[in-house]
């Protein structure tokens, strides 16, 4: 398995609304068309209204690459910058897990 955690810091409240709308358009397409995407969880951070954390878990690196090549993901990646103050990405090597079989 292959995973990553992304922390997005949004520019302001208006940007947060726009970003959340973009996520709302993208996530159903990930659910519907990406069998190799095992988990794609979007979190609001308690007490930090301008932060979002994504936790993503893929069957393998090939599934991640397939995710990155989807038209809905390319659109998300192109449009998200208009809403962001910063982005941090940590790629994860899954050492052990419970609850997800790939």
TrEMBL record:
Alphabetized PROSITE patterns for the sequence: ABM (PS51725)
Ranges where the ABM domain occurs: 2-92
Gene3D superfamilies referenced in this protein's UniProt entry, alphabetically: 3.30.70.100
Pfam families registered for this protein in UniProt: ABM
Name under which the protein is recorded: ABM domain-containing protein
Lineage of origin: Bacteria, Bacillati, Actinomycetota, Actinomycetes, Streptosporangiales
